[in-house]
Amino acid sequence: MRPHVHGATNWAPPSYSPKTGLFYVAHWEHSGIIAIEGEFPRGVGVNPAQTQMGQTNLLPFFNDDHEAYGVIRAYDPQTLDAKWEYRMADITWGGVLSTAGDVVFGGGKEGYFVALDARSGKELWRLAVGGQINSGPMSYSVGGKQYVTVAAGSSLFAFALP
Is 47 a residue whose pLDDT tops 60? Predict the structure, then answer.
């Protein structure tokens, strides 16, 4: 079945930009097999060590290009057509944030926090934060200066925007 029980998106916060008219979602592509044994279905072919939730430390991800991967994708909410995608090397439990400056922020289990062009998905900036990103970024303003923050590993990172 596709998406697998761990696939697509669930609790990770998405974002919508009225400026671009696009809906941004961090999710992961994954498929699986459900087997019926007796009365109860069970998943088979899933490596639970690869899909654990909420860990802070970085773990090696041994999947190849045909297995699970994380993606930040922009959709047209009227048609549900994908407009662009930014593929990550690992799966993601984190969400995304879009700003009025046409930037989408997100990250995943591989430990990179990224800034993407909201219209094209082109990577504008990337930083290794040393831990898994399992939350959605947020933005706030202090004294007229905008900041973006994200929790990664056991730390909170704050970045000032120009």
Answer: no
